[in-house]
């Protein structure tokens, strides 16, 4: 669906982390990727053909080097991943498991499984750096944020004032005043029912142009302008391997579809096209569930294979087949010994 000739710039601020993915079938091996909602969404957008500029306050260490190496593989601009002694590079253990009925599930861990110590966490960009960042940042058509801070709000305001739209994906509400300040400048709000259970009750009137509530295996609901909440049924994937990252693919798919048509004034979007964009996001999330890791399909499918599967899935409401893997990508090794890699981070 995304037109790669239509060059658009996407910037974002928030969680950019190092994902250490462990499969229960091989507990001593780990695969290393860039992760975090902001890191994933901006990388997926680059994969879809857009120019991506993630902004984060990382440390100057091996974990950051691994993140940058992975991002640059996908053409992401890493100029705004500030590293230094006062930064922090979050590390997240992404453990892929299965329940007693062999249904896949995953768990995020924030302690080193070898030493038991807490892993580094998230630090927001400093507000004093906003002006210098914005002066160097290319004019952005969309600004993505998943963590609320003074800096993220101020940067979003600047992008919006300059004609871009703001995509806000909160993981929680810790500061209601700043949350509502974010809502005032948000064009698209996307949240998980698991994380913001009371949002519909707390905000019966629509706050953003488009609001999307994800419901996991139940699909999603959305409201647009002055309309009531509408439901979109999910795609049923029968060969699920890992559901992590499905929401990030959905976000990137929605952004990518809207930008494809140059729809920067969201209020003018045709409602049928809007539903198509939401459907496209759902399809991307569904396909990634066939692979391990939050962006697993990128490491196992060529772009041509990916686009073929997307086109095929858009004509159906379910899929059940062995996940395809492109032989040309098999030589790319992201596997590390768990103890060795954690000892270097």
Structure description:
- With 345 residues, this protein is α/β, with parallel strands linked by helices.
- It has a single domain (9-327), classed as 3-Layer(aba) Sandwich (UDP-N-acetylmuramoyl-L-alanine:D-glutamate ligase), CATH 3.40.1190.
- It has 10 helices and 16 strands.
- A 9-stranded mixed sheet has the order 5-4-1-8-9-10-11-12-13, with helices on both faces. Strands 7-6-2-3-16 form a 5-stranded mixed sheet. It has a two-stranded parallel sheet with strand order 14-15.
- A hairpin with a 5-residue loop joins strand 11 and strand 12.
- The protein is globular, with a radius of gyration of 19 Å.
Spans of at least 5 consecutive residues whose pLDDT stays below 50 are: 1-5
Q: State the end-to-end distance.
A: 39 Å
Indicate the CATH class.
Alpha Beta
Provide the gyration radius in Å: 19 Å
In short:
By secondary structure, the protein is an alpha/beta fold. It is 31% helix and 23% strand.
Supply database-style keywords.
single chain, 345 residues, alpha/beta, UDP-N-acetylmuramoyl-L-alanine:D-glutamate ligase, five-stranded mixed β-sheet, 16 strands, 31% helix, disordered N terminus
Ordered list of secondary-structure elements with their pairings:
Blueprint: E1 9-13, E2 17-23, E3 29-35, H1 37-47, E4 51-59, H2 62-73, E5 81-84, E6 91-98, E7 104-109, H3 130-136, E8 142-145, H4 150-161, E9 165-168, H5 176-185, E10 188-192, H6 199-202, E11 210-214, E12 220-224, E13 230-232, E14 236-237, H7 246-260, H8 271-288, H9 303-313, E15 318-319, E16 335-337, H10 338-343
Parallel strand pairs: 1-4, 1-8, 2-6, 4-5, 8-9, 9-10, 10-11, 14-15
Antiparallel strand pairs: 2-3, 3-16, 6-7, 11-12, 12-13
Helix pairs in contact: 1-7, 4-5, 7-8
């Amino acid at each position: 669906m995304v037109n790669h000739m239509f060059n658009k710039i996407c910037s974002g601020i928030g969680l950019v982390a190092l994902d250490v993915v462990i499969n229960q079938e091989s507990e001593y091996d780990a695969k290393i990727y860039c992760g975090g909602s902001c890191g994933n969404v901006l990388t997926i957008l680059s994969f879809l053909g857009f120019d991506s500029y993630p902004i984060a306050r990382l440390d100057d260490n091996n974990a950051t080097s691994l993140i940058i190496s992975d991002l640059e593989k996908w053409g992401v601009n890493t100029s705004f991943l500030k590293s230094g002694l006062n930064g922090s590079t979050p590390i997240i253990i992404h453990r892929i498991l299965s329940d007693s009925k062999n249904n896949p599930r995953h768990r995020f861990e924030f302690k080193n499984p070898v030493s038991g110590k807490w892993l580094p966490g998230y630090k927001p960009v400093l507000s004093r750096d906003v002006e210098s960042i914005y002066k160097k940042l290319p004019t952005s058509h969309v600004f993505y944020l998943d963590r609320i801070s003074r800096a993220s709000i101020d940067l979003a305001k600047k992008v919006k004032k300059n004609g871009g739209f703001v995509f806000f994906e909160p993981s929680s509400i810790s500061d209601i005043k700043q949350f509502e300040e974010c809502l005032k400048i948000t064009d698209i709000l996307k949240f998980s029912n698991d994380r913001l259970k009371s949002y519909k009750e707390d905000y019966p009137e629509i706050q953003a142009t488009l609001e999307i509530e994800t419901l996991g295996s139940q699909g999603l609901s959305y409201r647009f302008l002055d309309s009531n909440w509408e439901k979109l049924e999910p795609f049923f994937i029968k060969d699920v391997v890992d559901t992590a990252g499905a929401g990030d693919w959905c976000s990137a798919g929605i952004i990518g579809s809207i930008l494809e048509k140059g729809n920067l004034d969201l209020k003018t979007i045709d409602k049928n096209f809007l539903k198509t964009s939401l459907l496209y996001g759902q399809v991307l999330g569904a396909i990634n569930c066939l692979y391990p890791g939050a962006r697993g399909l990128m490491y196992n499918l060529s772009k041509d294979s990916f686009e073929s599967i997307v086109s095929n899935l858009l004509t159906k409401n379910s899929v059940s087949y062995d996940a395809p893997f492109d032989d040309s990508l098999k030589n790319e090794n992201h596997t590390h010994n768990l103890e060795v890699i954690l000892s270097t981070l």
